Amino acid sequence: MPREAEPSLNEREFVLKALQENTRLDGRELDQYRPLELTFGDQYGVADVTLGKTRVLAKASAEVTVPYTDRPLDGIFNIATELSPMTSPAFEVNRPTETEVLISRLLEKTVRRSGALDTESLCLVAGQKCWSIRVDVHVLSHDGNLIDAACFAVVAALRHFRKPDTSMEGGVLTVYTPAEREPVPLSWLHSPFCITWSFFGEEGEIALLDATWLEEQVRVGSCTISLNKHGEICQIAKLGGTPVEAVALLQCTNVALSRAKDFSAFLDRKLAEDAKRRDKGGLLAELSAENDR
Amino acid sequence: MATERPLVLPGDVIPPSLIPTSANPNKKQQPLRLGPGLRHIPPSDIVPTVAGQLITVPHKNSMWVEYNSSRYTPTPSDLVIATISRSGPDFYYASLSPYTANATLPHLSFEGATKKTRPQLPPGSLVYARVTLANKHMDPEIECVSSATGKADGLGPLKDGMVFDISLGFARRLLMARSKEEGKVEVLELLGEEGLAFETAVGRNGKVWVSGASDAKGNEGVNAKTVVVVGRALQETDTKRLGVEQQRKLVKKLVREMR
């Protein structure tokens, strides 16, 4: 396994010097994101997110399984992250690097532990049958800020996802194909987003959003804040690095809230556009399982 | 230079009319020289191995395929920007592109270098060098001094500044002797006309080094903004494949944003 490529000394020095002059290499403001793009696949639950040159694909899928014995009333919800050698030769299959473990943990904490998906609604027959929802995250291209892009992709995929409709009659569970009944969306409670700040300088006095790969190599510390548009913070991860002033961190969370609102509005708009594109109208709309019966 | 540049695909048959022949039959004919992207299959077939434009130069009796790729394959006498990865007893090990075998740079192949006066380069520093040996089965070798004259000719360690990645095709266009007419790249001249002072070094391995020129007081690269603007102009021209007119607009826009 080759070592990850490292930027040269000149690049390191220049990035820092330019940041002292409030300049970033791509001409962005310090708290500005790269252009964010989101495309949904033909299938339900496929979200392709590009953030500058970073590209992440998330795919949600569902299957019926037996619930865990200690949680008979809950469904199963998993997020699997994979950094393949396609992203960079430094990544190897079946040997997770530190980056990969960190992304998995942060996504887990942000989406699963914050209760964004109501797992109780996934239960079909208590203790016997439940839905298992799984999201696979594939990083297709790595140019920094994987966490924010991956988190956005996971949330977008889950909100776009539709699971097959089911019915329970006389102890018989029926799972309908999409042709029989329109699939139903997941019971989604809130949409958390990750916002990552990177810190530069001797005491971490320069803070910026959406670091590129080069900036990530030079930074002295980073802090990932997960929150939804209502300002409810799900987690804050500041894993090592230079200590940062508490007041500065408070300022960071304020900016993060406005970014989370932007993300939320952007995702709502994209979902509405996609729904409009899929909406066939007429009889099919009347047959939707979401209608009142 | 040939006027027409036909597009060839791998495995195409190249019509004999395109293969250059010596213009003057009385002169002793030079052997036909094949450049990158062409393969000679004996006895007399010439087959392209990549997709690109076929370029023929009749007076040099040579032909090659011009194509844009991301993978750099070292070729002798290429000018490259290399990153020192470590130093050995007699050589520096320098990387020309990430995740490939290191090139060797002898400690003494700098201008006026002796065992005692050779430049001490820490890992991660940059050098502008020339490829001297590139063999399919061996690590490439590079040098920072012309072995014939003993002069550096602009090669050597690069101080300060910033490296920007560009595509290999764009690097070749920048390095053309008449890059404005043939390569259709005018962006550096336009930036200079706008009053920006900077110096650049283009490496054929897809890297451009840009540094703010020293001002009257001798402060090296005081203006990071200039370097960023030059780098962005180059990268956008490359990725968006801008023509000369669009390059002019881009430069105007970037310079306006900077001031």
From TrEMBL, chain A:
Keywords: Cytoplasm, Exosome, Nucleus, Ribonucleoprotein, Ribosomal protein, RNA-binding, rRNA processing. GO terms for molecular function: mRNA 3'-UTR AU-rich region binding. Residues 32-164, 191-258 form the Exoribonuclease phosphorolytic domain. One of its GO terms (biological process) is nuclear mRNA surveillance. The keyword rRNA-binding does not apply. It is found in: Cytoplasm; Nucleus, Nucleolus. Coiled coil: none annotated. CDD domains: RNase_PH_RRP45. GO terms for cellular component: cytoplasmic exosome (RNase complex); nuclear exosome (RNase complex); nucleolus; ribosome. Its main location: cytoplasm. InterPro entries: ExoRNase_PH_dom1 (IPR001247), ExoRNase_PH_dom2 (IPR015847), ExoRNase_PH_dom2_sf (IPR036345), Exosome_comp_Rrp42_subfam (IPR050590), PNPase/RNase_PH_dom_sf (IPR027408), Ribosomal_Su5_D2-typ_SF (IPR020568), Rrp45 (IPR033100). The keyword Acetylation does not apply. Belongs to the RNase PH family. This is Exosome complex component RRP45.
Automatic annotation (TrEMBL), chain B:
It comes from the Eukaryota. Its main location: nucleus. SUPFAM superfamilies: Eukaryotic type KH-domain (KH-domain type I) (SSF54791), Nucleic acid-binding proteins (SSF50249). It is found in: Nucleus, Nucleolus. Pfam families: KH_6 (PF15985), Rrp40_N (PF18311), RRP40_S1 (PF21262). The keyword Transport does not apply. Residues 32-71 form the Exosome complex exonuclease Rrp40 N-terminal domain. One of its GO terms (cellular component) is nucleolus. InterPro entries: Exosome_RNA_bind1/RRP40/RRP4, KH_dom_type_1, KH_dom_type_1_sf, NA-bd_OB-fold, Rrp40_N_euk, Rrp40_S1. One of its GO terms (molecular function) is RNA binding. CDD domains: S1_Rrp40. Residues 161-214 form the K Homology domain. GO terms for biological process: CUT catabolic process; exonucleolytic trimming to generate mature 3'-end of 5.8S rRNA from tricistronic rRNA transcript (SSU-rRNA, 5.8S rRNA, LSU-rRNA); nuclear polyadenylation-dependent rRNA catabolic process; poly(A)-dependent snoRNA 3'-end processing; TRAMP-dependent tRNA surveillance pathway; U4 snRNA 3'-end processing. Keywords: Cytoplasm, Exosome, RNA-binding, rRNA processing. Belongs to the RRP40 family. This is Ribosomal RNA-processing protein 40. It comes from Podospora australis.
